[in-house]
Design a protein that fits this description.
Number of helices: 4
Largest sheet: none
Strand content: under 5%
Structural class: mainly alpha
Number of strands: 0
Shape: globular
Oligomer: single chain
Distance between the termini: 13 Å
Length: 91
């Protein structure tokens, strides 16, 4: 896969799972480990898997319009966007 994630706790979208309350409370098993069904698969997960990339920042189309709203939803998502930009520059 193109663009190996620096840390397995970094989600496809760039969110740092190790600081997420849902992950820490064992509510979320991490998008990388989840067995997704077609009905509930997360859009960044589907997209990255279809393209054979490890994270959004490894995409030739990053940043894409599909993720623009996501990256504006919260501080952690804005941090994820910055992380993806930094990771994409290292490729």
């Amino acid at each position: 896969m193109k663009g190996k994630a620096m840390n397995d706790n970094i989600a496809y979208c760039g969110v740092d799972c190790s600081v997420c309350p849902d992950y820490l409370d064992k509510i979320c098993p991490s998008c990388r480990l989840t067995e997704w069904t077609e009905e509930d698969i997360c859009m960044p997960v589907r997209c990255c898997r279809e393209k054979g990339i490890e994270f959004c920042g490894a995409c030739d189309g990053f940043p894409c319009k599909d993720m623009a709203e996501f990256y504006e939803e919260s501080d952690s998502h804005r941090e994820a966007f910055a992380r993806m930009k930094a990771m994409s520059q290292k490729l």
